[in-house]
Amino acid sequence: MEMSDRYDPSEVEQRIYAWWQSSNYFRSEDVSTKPPFSTILPPPNVTGSLHLGHALDHTIQDVLVRWKRMSGFNTLWLPGTDHAGIATQSVVEKKLKKEGKSRQDLGRDAFVDEVWSWKEQYGGRIVEQMKRLGDSCDWDRHVFTLDENVSQAVKKVFVQLYEKGWIYKGTRLINWSPSLESALSDLEVDYKEVKGNLYHIRYDLEDGSGSLTIATTRPETLLADTAVAVNPDDERYASFIGRKLKLPLLDRSIPVIADEHVETEFGTGALKVTPAHDFSDYEIGKRHNLEMINMLNKNGTLNEAAGEYAGLKVFEARKKVVEDLEAKEQLLKTEPHTHQVGHCSRSGCVVEPLLSDQWFVKTEHLAEPAKRVVESGTITFEPESWTKTYLHWMDIIQDWCISRQLWWGHRIPAYYCEQGNVTVSEGQPTECAVCGSANLKQDEDVLDTWFSSGLWPFSTMGWPEETETQKTFYPTNVLVTGHDIIFFWVARMIMAGLEFKKDVPFRKVYIHGLIRDAQGKKMSKSTGNAEDPLELIDEFGADALRFTLMAQIASGRDLKFSKQRLEGYRNFMNKVWNATRFALGAFDGFDASKIEPGTVLNSNDLSDPDQWIIHKIGQCEAEVDAALSSYRFSDATHAVYSFVWHELCDWYLEFIKPVIYGEDSKEKTATQTVLVQVLNRAVRLLHPFAPFISEEIYQKLPIKGEACIVDTYPTPKNDKDWLEMGSETVATELDLVREVITAIRNIRGENRIKPGVEIKTVLAPKDDKSQKILGGNKEYIRSLAKVGELLIQPDVDMNKSAVTPVRMGDLSVEVVVPLEGLVDFAEEVKRISKNIEKLQKELGSLSKRLSNENFLKNAPEDVVTQGKKQMEDLKTQIESLEASKLRLS
RNA sequence: AGGGUCUUAGCUCAGUUGGUAGAGCGCCACCCUUACAAGGUGGAUGUCGUCGGUUCGACCCCGGCAGGCCCUACCA
From the alpha carbon of A516, which nucleotide's C1' atom is closest? Predict the structure, then answer.
């Protein structure tokens, strides 16, 4: 079997993925004896292409799903895509525009057909990209938010809520996007700081007896003013209350009213009231029964209510109004003013508050139980801190504007007769519910995309039919998503789940951070700092990308994506690959046919390194298990990384080389057996994070099951007997050997002894046990530290030698390397002095602590005894170093 | 304005019940040693933002301050 010395992911990944899929390994069963584990994929927009945010979100889910699948669960990861009303409609409109057409030219039906054909052609792109990342979704269950059964669910929910009175139609002030010509929900508005002006405008009293000055950032809206408000306690304006003002430019008569809402401190303390174009003015208007004048057309231009300003765009009107006021000397002052302005999160245009007829979901009764399930802990957030944010939002939740003036989406199932009576129905009604008229027209509007998304956990499982899928997999175990859509989506799923399934949609919400660039800025296409995950996969491999994301993610925190780290983990994949190359070479002539992953060997046949590595992989498994169980992904990857690289590769593979290349066949067979078992286990451990390379290697090993992806996930509970071959005692003993080797290497390095030079070393053990351990591992020390003559004897002549004391628990040994003729002693004196200094510093703070009576009195006994013992050790070590330093000078 | 969160090695970040700190990358030196130069061995590096409190002892707990980020709500 030929293996290149560089791991080439591009060759491996697509082949492996196709094989997994054709083998149906991603499939979940509606009926199974296995315990269920389910999660639903937050459906990406069909227009989307995979960005790093998806990559992070999906990798977390895939890690959980693969881990659970390997842990024996009937695992469902339910994929889907979202029709994304505005986004998709915009894409197709742009395409039409290039052809010189508009959606209006085509008409509704033809346009919707056009969108569908666009969706058929390009809508699968993101799914293909998800496969590149390795997402192990149950693709047979893929759902699109406009699929027939989802539409059925949407209609049923709409009708039920309508019948309960929880969906209503009303004329209210809503956020309007002039460029989309559609209503938006509160959540779809982003507030951005904008530098503008505060204009001070004089409003004259009708009777000519005086004037009042207001301050506004939007002078053009005065055209729709219907009052000026002052604070009732503001003495400056007390005499104005109840009198009439002449509205500048239009000369309409408007009253001065008193309202608590007005801040006396801001501006002039007098507020122009435009109830139809400002949210707080709207409230004032309602309180005082003011006329509401709408001065805007749907496209954001001014209408006939604006008189001669009709037809202008808002910003043009503002300019002209200011000029005209100036000409009439009614503009008294213009001062720079920075304030927050709402922008459409989709188109970026400035949002206009607009009075219009829309459909709303009344949220108070839905929010109440949705709050309770989080308060009671039925649903928990990870990290927990999001609980507070969620509850706060549920406290201040407003009714949800769900109608959108678009053509692409779930059309509102409401029908009107000529008289304007409303019939709401799941199917096409034949007659008006009020007047019986057969002439019915369906509402032109569609529903907010999030309306259908909110039903996702059960609409994807066949609801409203009672399906086996729901019985088995609802509620889902966990929902993984970013904090940007907690309110858009998570909250609404909880409300809908409780209302329609009478149960929570998931038990756990894992909230991850957002991806930022190396400078900490939000990644976005427009700023050009977005890394394309597909390019990263091409260059570094999907495994490396996944591993990087998992290593970088820290509990709920945003993460700064680091390409350097990606490179590092690409190197790690290569390391794993090459370790396998070595191992496969080491299996030459090895008969693995009778070996199982859990086959236990006679412990007499095992070398210390064999027992050590088994012990270490057991520890690693425990760490990974604990980390994954509590969603600490970076800890899990770190445990695997450090085991594979620093324990398996750095030490174990080096330890066994003399055995593998040696002649002792019994010893060799034992080591080969352990090696193949450890590697098999290690790639299974690695699999959720790096599925491709682990599967590829798994298949190359002489012992294996059908596929890594469906093999058992190693934990300390699996193959207990096998893990027990790894003894902690032996592990500690071998740690002494490793320390000795490091000490010799350090002496070599610091004294600049060339790697080619074989040195003589004397090990002076301080006790019988150390003597025995070192004796037993003599060959390892010789080969790993490049020692020629190695003596182990309690008494040694330390004259003109480098000396390093080594301790490991109760074990103690002095490493002595005679330097005569090898090097200049000056370097060694320097080295020893450095060590002494270090130890003395430690001793200093330790003895200070131990001489504190209060410490001795109050600290726990074991801390004190440990400190005392440590101090003795330090003293001994320093003494021996001082002695050898003396002998050199 | 209110709330949240963060400030640890040059960079990015770990640090799970308080016992003076770790990783990766980067850096320095030496090495193409028969798995891997995307590698090996060794090495250097931190008054843990600041001030104060609790404690025998604080990166960790409490409070003030400074700075960064995020969210919510806004004064027109």
Answer: B69
Span A160-207, pLDDT tens digits: 999 999 999 988 888 888 888 888 887 778 887 777 888 888 888 888
Q: For position A523, what pLDDT does the model report? A: 66
Instruction: For tokens 């594979």, name the residue.
Output: A644
Give the whole-angstrom CA distance, residue A883 versus residue A776: 29
| Top-confidence range, A25-39, A274-288, A313-327 | A25-39
What's the pLDDT at A519? 60
Q: Is the CB of A389 under 7 A from strand B?
A: yes
Which bases of chain B come closer than 7 Å to a protein CB? 3-6, 11-15, 19-20, 23-26, 29-31, 33-44, 55-57, 68-76
DSSP string across A211-258: EEEEEES-GGGGGG--EEEE-TT-GGGGGGTT-EEEPTTT--EEEEEE
How many angstroms separate the CA of A692 from the C1' of B36? Answer: 19
Helix then strand then coil, % of chain A, to nearest 5: 50, 20, 35
B68 C1' to A45 CA distance, Å:
33
CA of A846 to C1' of B68 (A): 37
pLDDT tens digits for A74-86? Answer: 999 999 999 888 8
Rounded CA separation A352/A277 (Å)? 7
Which nt has its C1' nearest the CA of A486?
Answer: B71
CA dist., res. A202 & res. A228, Å (int)? 11
Q: Is the CB of A815 under 7 A from strand B?
A: no
The model's pTM is 0.91
How far does the CA of A696 sit from the C1' of B24, in Å? 26
Q: Which two tokens stand for residue A758?
A: 């074989």
Distance between the alpha carbon (CA) of A657 and the C1' atom of B22, Å: 30
Give pLDDT, residue A349.
84
Can you tell me the mean pLDDT for A765-771?
Answer: 93
> Would you give the distance in Å from CA A726 to the centre of its chain?
37
Rounded CA separation A649/A651 (Å): 6
How far: A554 CA to B17 C1' (Å)? 20
pLDDT, chain A, mean: 89
pLDDT at A761: 94
| Short-list A80, A79, A102, A99, CA closest to A89 | A102
- Give the pLDDT confidence of A491-538 residue by residue, as tens digits: 999 999 999 999 999 999 998 888 876 666 666 655 566 678 999 999
Nearest residue (CA) to C1' of B55: A858
- Strand B–CB A272 distance below 7 A: yes
Task: Measure A805 CA to B44 C1' (Å).
Answer: 22
pLDDT surpasses 60 at A626: yes
Say how far apart CA A642 and CA A652 lie, in whole Å. 13
Q: How far is CA A50 from CA A124, A457, A489, A521, in A?
A: 12, 22, 20, 19
